C-alpha cells in the first residue's frame, strides 16, 4: 500500500491553490482563557462549499481531468458531495452524487445548485455503496471516494500545511475523524513538517469506531452511530487506518453534550458558524484540559454547513 | 450645535487604533449573485464585545481619562453597555450600566464579565433615563450616552474609514439606524472621504422613527417599536438627527420577514453570526434590487450578539 507523503501534499497544494480559498486562521482570547490552551483555528467553514472537503475533491478532479475523464461519481453524507459537484463544475466535468435521503436539506440544495445529478438512498454505508456501484456501471463515471482515495487525502492535507505556515510552531494539531481522510492528510502533513508535533483525532463517543480501531489495532467498522456530528458517521478504510496508525498520536472521544457546548462556545465567542463535526475538536480540549494547558494547539474547523432550523441550543437552555 | 468632521473621526481612529480590532471586510460570491449587487461587508460582529459599539465607547472613555474622570455610566439595550464596560476596564475606570430587564442574557452576562455594576430597569427609554439620572446623582459618574455623544459618534465613524480604505471606491454605503450614532459617524466619514458616495440608513419598518423623522424633517420619537432587531429600538437625538439630515441620502425600511431572511442568508452563505440589527442592511438590498444592481455597496455589519436559544429560523421553515 503506497501512503501519501508530505511531498504529495505539497504537490496537491500547488495544484489546487488557485481554486481553493486560503481560509483564515482565527484565535479567540476568550476561548484561550476558558480552555487554558493557546488555540489556532483553521477556518475551513469559510472554504468553498463550506468545508475542507473541497480541497480533496478539487485535487482528485484535476488529476482525473489530466487523464481526460469526463464524469465523476461519489456517495457522501453531504459536504464531499457538494465539494465534488463544485469541483467537477469548475473543471467542466459532470458529477453524479448518491446521498442518504436523511441528509440536511441545506446540503442537498447545495449539491443541486452546483449542477450535480443526485440519487437518494437509505442512510447506511451499504446502501450508499450499492447505489453507487449500480450508477457507475450504468454511466461509466469514475468514483471519487470521500476519503478512501489517495488524491483526496493529499488535498485534505493542504489545510494543515497552510495552518502550520501561518501559526508557526504548534505543539499539538487536532482534526475530527470520520472516514479518516482529513486526519490522514493532516497527520501526514504535520509530521512531515514538524516531526515532534502531536497529532490527535477527535471523535464523538457515540461513533467511536476510529478510537476502537486505533486502540485495538484492528479495523472496526462504524455500527449504527448516533451523533449530532453528522459528518463523522463513516468508518475508516484500510488506507486511512494505516496512515492514522502510522502518524496519529492519540484519538480522543467526547460526549454529545461536550460537542454541543463546544459548538455554542465557538458560535458565541467567535461569531462564526461551524457544524457539530467541527466542534468535536474543541470538545476534546474542553474535556481534557490537562493535556492542552499552555499548549499551542492547532484545530481544523472542518466545515460550517448546518440546518439553521434544527439547531441543538434550545435543548440545553 | 457642533457636528463631528472627518478630521474628528480620523483623530478618533488614531486614538483607538491600538485598542480595537481592525475587523475584516468580507465578500460573498453567492450573496452577490443572489442580490445582483457587489457587496463589501465590514464585519463589526468580530469587533471586541461583538459590536461596533466598542469603537465609540473606547474613544469616549480615552478622552474622559485625559480629563481624569474615574467613573462612567450609561443606559443601553446591550451592546453599548458591554462596550462601555470593557472600555472602562481597559482604561482602568469603573462603569455603571442601566439595562432593561428584558435584555438578552448573553448581553447581560457580557456586561457582568467585564466588571461593570448593573442596575436593571423597565424596557422603556423613559425608565432608562430616570434610573440613569438617579445613579449619576448618587455616584457622580460621567454619562457616556450610547449615541447622543460627540465622541461616541466619532468612534463609530472609524469603521467606515477602514471599510473605505479597504474596499476602494464604493457607490453606496449602508448602516443600520437606531439612535443614529453609527449612521451619523458612518455618513460623516463617508461623505468626507468621497463626496459623491450615497449613504443610506436601514431601519425596521416596525421601528421607523428615523424614517419618519427623515422624511418629514421633524424629529419623531420611537413609540413602542416591536422588532426582532433589538439594537434598533431607540430614537434619534437632536444631534444624530441633524447629522443624518445633513449627510444621509435616504432611509429605507424593511419588514421583519426580510430581516430574518437576510440574517439567514448571511449565516448560511457567509458562515458568520450577525444579529438581526445587522441584517437590516442586507434586507434593504434584497427588498430594493433595482437600487443596488451592479453597485459597489458597503455594508456595516454592526454586531453578532444573539441569544442562540431564541433564534428565529424555525418560524420560517
How many helical stretches of chain A? 14
In one word, what is the shape of chain A? globular
Oligomer: homodimer
- What percentage of amino acids of chain A are in beta strands? 15-25%
Biggest chain pair contact, residues each?
A-B, 20 and 20 residues
Strand order, main sheet of chain A: write it out: 1-2-10-7-8-9
Helix content of chain A: 40-55%
Kindly provide the name of the CATH class of the largest domain in chain A: Alpha Beta
Structural class of chain A: alpha/beta
- Report the count of strand segments of chain A: 10
Question: Quick one: biggest sheet of chain A?
Answer: 6 strands, mixed
Produce a short descriptive summary.
Two copies of one chain form a homodimer. With 317 residues, chain A is α/β, with parallel strands linked by helices. Helix content of chain A is 46%, strand content 16%.
Give an overview of the whole structure.
Two copies of one chain form a homodimer. The first copy, chain A, is of the alpha/beta class. Helices cover 46% and strands 16% of the residues of chain A. Chain A has helices spanning 6-16, 29-35, 53-66, 79-90, 105-113, 125-139, 150-156, 158-167, 181-193, 209-216, 238-247, 256-270, 276-287, 289-292, and strands at residues 25-26, 38-43, 71-75, 94-100, 117-121, 142-143, 172-176, 198-204, 250-254, 296-301. In chain A, strands 1-2-10-7-8-9 form a six-stranded mixed beta sheet, sandwiched between helices. A four-stranded parallel beta sheet of chain A has the order 5-4-3-6, sandwiched between helices. The radius of gyration of chain A is 18 Å and the shape is globular. The mean pLDDT of chain A is 94. The A-B interface holds A 24, 45-46, 50, 106, 264, 267-268, 271-274, 304, 308-309, 311, 313-314, 316-317 and B 24, 45-46, 50, 106, 264, 267-268, 271-274, 304, 308-309, 311, 313-314, 316-317.
Amino acid at each position: 500500500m503506497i501512503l501519501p507523503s508530505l511531498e504529495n501534499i505539497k504537490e496537491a497544494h500547488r495544484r489546487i491553490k488557485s481554486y481553493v480559498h486560503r481560509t483564515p486562521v482565527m484565535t479567540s482570547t476568550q476561548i484561550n482563557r476558558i480552555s487554558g490552551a493557546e488555540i489556532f483555528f483553521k477556518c475551513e467553514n469559510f472554504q468553498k462549499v463550506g468545508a475542507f472537503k473541497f480541497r480533496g475533491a478539487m485535487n482528485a478532479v484535476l488529476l482525473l481531468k489530466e487523464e481526460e475523464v469526463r464524469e465523476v461519481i461519489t456517495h457522501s453524507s453531504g459536504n464531499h458531495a457538494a465539494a465534488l459537484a463544485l469541483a467537477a463544475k469548475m473543471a467542466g466535468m459532470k458529477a453524479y452524487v448518491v446521498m442518504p435521503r436523511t441528509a440536511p436539506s441545506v446540503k442537498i440544495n447545495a449539491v443541486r445548485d452546483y449542477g450535480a445529478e443526485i440519487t437518494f438512498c437509505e442512510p447506511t454505508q451499504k446502501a450508499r455503496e450499492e447505489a453507487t456501484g449500480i450508477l457507475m456501471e450504468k454511466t461509466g463515471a469514475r468514483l471519487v471516494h470521500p476519503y478512501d482515495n489517495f488524491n483526496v487525502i493529499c488535498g485534505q492535507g493542504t489545510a494543515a500545511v497552510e495552518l502550520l505556515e501561518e501559526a508557526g510552531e504548534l505543539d499539538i494539531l487536532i482534526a475530527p475523524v470520520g472516514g479518516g481522510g482529513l486526519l490522514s492528510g493532516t497527520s501526514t502533513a504535520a509530521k512531515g513538517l514538524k516531526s515532534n508535533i502531536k497529532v490527535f483525532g477527535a471523535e464523538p463517543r457515540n461513533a467511536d469506531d476510529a478510537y476502537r480501531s486505533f486502540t485495538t489495532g484492528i479495523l472496526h467498522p462504524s455500527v449504527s452511530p448516533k451523533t449530532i456530528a453528522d459528518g463523522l458517521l463513516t468508518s475508516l478504510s484500510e488506507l486511512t487506518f494505516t496512515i492514522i496508525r502510522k502518524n496519529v498520536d492519540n484519538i480522543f472521544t467526547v460526549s454529545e453534550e461536550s460537542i454541543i457546548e463546544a459548538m455554542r462556545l465557538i458560535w458565541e465567542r467567535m461569531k462564526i458558524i461551524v457544524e457539530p463535526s467541527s466542534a468535536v475538536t474543541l470538545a476534546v480540549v474542553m474535556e481534557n484540559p490537562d493535556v492542552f494547558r499552555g499548549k499551542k494547539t492547532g484545530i481544523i474547523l472542518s466545515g460550517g454547513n448546518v440546518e439553521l432550523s434544527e439547531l441543538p441550543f434550545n435543548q440545553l437552555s
